[in-house]
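Notes from hallway chat w/ T.B., transcribed later so I don't forget. T.B. wanted the structure written out for a chain they're using in a teaching module, and asked if we could keep both sequence and C-alpha cells in one place. Agreed to drop them here.
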Amino acid sequence: AFIKKMVMDELKEGDDAYDKYDAIIADPSTTDDQYTQALEELMVEQADALIDISYYCFDTGVKAGYDLDPLLDIVCEANLSKLKDGKVIKDTDPTSPRFGKVLKPEGWQDPAPLLTREIRSQAAKGFSATDFSFDPNAKISDIIKPVWSDLNKRP
C-alpha cells in the first residue's frame, strides 16, 4: 500500500505540473520567457517524478528479494522487440479499445514465461533481500547506472 501511495503521489505531481504548463501556454498573454520558464519547470517536475517512481519501484523489487538486472533485461528485450525498423507502431484506430497502445508485431513473445523461469531460478538459489548489500550512502545513480548503460548498448 505504501509503494502504491508514493507512486500515485508522484503521478499526481506530474499531472499537476502538466496542468500548470497547459494553463500557461493556453494564456495568449504568455511571453516567450514565461513559456520557456514553464517548459523548464515542467521538465524538472517530470524528471523528478520519473526518478522518484523508479527509485520506489527498484527499492520495492530489491526489498522483495529480486535480482532485478536479469528481470529488466527480459522485459526490456520484449519491449524493444516491439519496434519495427526502429519505430514504435501504435494502434491509430480511435474506435479501437487498444487506441494509442503499442502494437505487438508478429512473432512478439510475451516476457512472462521468461520472467517466471528467472524468478524460479532466483528462488531456487535462495536469493533474498537479506542477501543484498546496500550502501545507504550510495547515490541512486550509482545503483541503477549499470542497468541504464546496458540498455543504452542495445541496438
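Follow-up for T.B.: The chain has a mean pLDDT of 82. Might be a good example for the class.
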